[in-house]
Amino acid sequence: MGRIAALILIGNEILSGRTRDDNIQFLATNLGELGIPLREIRVIPDVRETIVNTVVEFRARFDEVFTTGGIGPTHDDITSPCVAEAFGVPWEFHPATYDMLKEQFGEDFNAARQRMAKLPRGAVPIPNPVSRAPGFSIGNVHVMAGVPRIMRAMFHELAPTLKRGNPVFSRTWHTTSLFEGTIADGLEAIQNRFPALDLGSYPFHRDDGRRGVALVAKGQNTDDVNEAARAIYTLIKEKGGDPIEGEPPP
Question: What is the CA angle 44-16-41, rounded to 5?
Answer without folding.
Answer: 35
